[in-house]
Design brief:
Layout (H helix, E strand, L loop, with lengths): L1 E3 L27 H21 L1 H19 L3 E3 L7 H6 L32 E5 L2 E6 L2 E6 L4 E6 L2 E4 L5 H7 L21 H14 L6 E4 L2 E4 L11 H9 L15 H4 L31 E7 L20 E4 L15 E4 L8 E2 L3 E3 L5
Helix pairs in contact: 1-2
């Protein structure tokens, strides 16, 4: 219990409740005659004094405002919440009972959902300085055609959304192919050899401030797979990205007639390249993975090694490099995801281009 006194220093001697009732409610159990007697005795005394002396009458009149002031300065007894005795609390009117605050109810935090990732999950696009890439997830897929296939595992990597364009190639290479003449910048960078493509990847890496992937040794070109620069995709990476989780002959399904929506090929191309990105992309947002121009891969062309199943990089040597994707000059059957092509690495052809990849998490 806490005692509050409006006037400091008066103390407990004003606590009349020790001998007299604290409130009208405390008088309820007292006998009525006793209450009357307690009220009449002081009244009779005051009346007698007033009849005997004019001075007493004046004093009585003066005491009335003093009593009113005293009524406003009377001692109040305040109980702390939770400390009021039950017998006292029951006798108090509702308006005099102290308000007891309700305990705060803590709102539980919503459980973290495993369906809501903290970071974007691939595949998703990333603008990587000079070229737009798609960050791709790693996984296992079945590579090869309907009769000969194998299960291959691929680490995450990023692939350019479109083949390298003439505009990007011209901005980095002083001597572009003469066959382009004054072609549009949006056209694919065709008529480039495998070695031209490798040199372009190194130039793009240097311009972007990354470590180059390729160096030329006495036996040919060597790839530094740990470098953060641009490079050509391996054949397995290319097919994995092209299929985009599908197992149908074409990434769009079973019907070759649907090729017109996704690819430039012999029936709709007028046998010439077209600006990149005009047809529908594959399920992972990659454009021109079928048709328009063949695309160089890193691998030497050879029969698949059935033992090379974990991020295969192809044989150590060969005579021609792998091509993938078909071109504006082929029929729909040659646009299948498993279709392979080949060409000598120093050769040029009007229907051959390329696109770049980088290691996962190295973008920016």
């Amino acid at each position: 219990m806490m005692i509050r006194d409006p006037k400091p220093g008066v103390g407990l001697r004003r606590l009349r409740g020790l001998f007299l009732p604290r409130s009208v409610a405390d008088l309820d159990p007292w006998p009525t005659p006793l209450l009357l007697l307690l009220g009449l005795i002081p009244a009779a005394g005051l009346a007698w004094l007033a009849s005997r002396s004019l001075v007493a009458t004046v004093l009585l009149v003066l005491l009335i405002p003093v009593a009113a002031i005293w009524q406003g300065r009377r001692i109040r007894v305040v109980w702390e919440p939770g400390t009021i005795p039950a017998e006292v609390e029951e006798t108090q009117p509702e308006r005099y009972r102290p308000a007891i605050p309700e305990p705060a109810v803590e709102t539980p935090e919503p459980p973290e959902s495993s369906d809501i990732p903290s970071e974007p999950q691939p595949p998703y696009p990333v603008q990587d300085q000079l070229i737009e890439m798609i960050e791709l997830p790693g996984g296992t897929f079945r590579t090869g055609n309907e009769w000969l296939h194998r299960e291959v595992s691929i680490q995450p990597f990023a692939m350019a959304r479109t083949p390298v364009t003439r505009g990007l190639y011209r901005s980095l290479v002083k001597a572009p192919p003469k066959a382009w003449k004054s072609g549009r910048d949006e056209l694919p960078a065709n008529s480039v050899s495998w070695e031209d493509a490798v040199c372009f990847c190194n130039t793009l890496s240097e311009r972007s401030g990354h470590r180059i992937c390729y160096r030329e040794s006495g036996t040919g070109w060597v790839c530094d797979w740990e470098a953060d620069g641009y490079r050509l995709p391996t054949e397995a990476e290319w097919e994995y990205a092209c299929r985009a989780g599908t197992q149908t002959p074409w990434f769009w399904g079973e019907q070759k007639e649907d090729a017109v929506h996704f690819a430039w090929f012999a029936d709709n191309s007028s046998i010439k390249p077209h600006p990149v990105g005009e047809k529908k992309p594959n399920p992972w947002g990659l454009y021109d993975m079928a048709g328009n121009v063949w695309e160089w891969c890193w691998d030497w062309y050879a029969t698949y090694d059935p033992r090379d199943l974990d991020n295969p990089e192809g044989p150590a040597e060969g005579e021609s490099r792998v091509l993938r994707g078909g071109s504006f000059g082929v029929v729909p059957r040659s646009l299948r995801s498993a279709r392979r092509g080949r060409f000598e690495p120093v050769g040029l052809n009007f229907d051959i281009g390329f696109r770049c990849v980088r290691g996962s998490g190295q973008l920016g």
